[in-house]
From TrEMBL:
Top-level enzyme category: transferase
Name of the protein in question: Probable nicotinate-nucleotide adenylyltransferase
Organism this protein belongs to: Proteus hauseri ATCC 700826
Entry keyword set: ATP-binding, NAD, Nucleotide-binding, Nucleotidyltransferase, Pyridine nucleotide biosynthesis, Transferase
Main function: Catalyzes the reversible adenylation of nicotinate mononucleotide (NaMN) to nicotinic acid adenine dinucleotide (NaAD).
Catalytic activities: nicotinate beta-D-ribonucleotide + ATP + H(+) = deamido-NAD(+) + diphosphate
HAMAP family membership: NaMN_adenylyltr
GO biological process: NAD+ biosynthetic process
One term of GO molecular function: nicotinate-nucleotide adenylyltransferase activity
């Protein structure tokens, strides 16, 4: 009988989390995560707008307005959900605490990942209890194609090399512990620029979904 070359079935497709202030949400958030989700085959991406970010100024739009903008932006994506637990916290939201909450809810076996950008990876040793992140989840890094990721210190570079995987199956077959650098499109869009454009009345439909741009205008945000 001829041999077959079937891949091993995935134990359980990974669920991924993606956090941010989303002030406002834009294509620089949406399109890399959409590409990553398709590339890896994520079961679900849960978007986590936060209330009080630990490392940046307080957002200009209110929690309710930013939540509504995220909901409007995610409407076309069946596998994209929004979770409000960080918005409801009156204290700064630390990623490790949110991840532990999810891990407690989904159990020890379900693969769980956290999506970050390449810049965040290279500064991850400044995060609260960063050493515990890979005990709870995988890290999926939206990396610039062809860009060599390299930490400033040998210790951090060793940490990356010890945990890096080149096999997408690891993200689905293991509950946590791996880092995957994914070639995703890079969009030179920032929420800061969008807010600045709105302050001088420049249209931003090219930078974010029409529903979000229309909502910003209706609410007179960033003026």
């Amino acid at each position: 009988m001829p041999k077959t070359n079937h891949k091993m079935p995935l134990i359980n497709q990974a669920i991924a989390l993606y956090g941010g202030t989303f002030d406002p949400i834009h294509y620089g958030h949406l399109r890399p995560v959409e590409a990553l989700s398709g590339l890896i085959g994520l079961k679900e991406v849960i978007w986590l707008p936060n209330n009080i970010p630990p490392h940046r100024p307080q957002p200009e739009a209110s929690s309710e307005q930013r939540l509504e903008m995220v909901r409007l932006a995610l409407r076309p994506f069946a596998s994209f959900k929004v979770d409000t637990r960080e918005l409801e916290k009156p204290t700064p939201s630390y990623t490790i605490e949110t991840l532990r909450d999810f891990r407690q809810e989904i159990g020890d076996k379900q693969p769980l990942a956290f999506i970050i950008g390449q810049d965040s990876l290279l500064s991850i040793n400044t995060w609260h209890q960063w050493e515990s992140l890979l005990d709870v989840c995988h890290l999926l890094v939206c990396a610039r194609p062809g860009y060599q990721t390299h930490f400033e210190t040998p210790q951090m570079q060793t940490w990356l090399e010890q945990h890096q995987t080149y096999q997408q199956e690891d993200i689905h077959c293991l509950p946590a512990g791996k880092i995957l650098l994914a070639d995703t499109p890079l969009y030179n869009i920032s929420a800061t620029d969008i807010r600045a454009r709105h302050k001088v009345g420049i249209d931003c439909h090219d930078l974010l979904p029409n529903r979000v741009e229309d909502y910003i205008r209706q609410q007179k945000l960033y003026q």
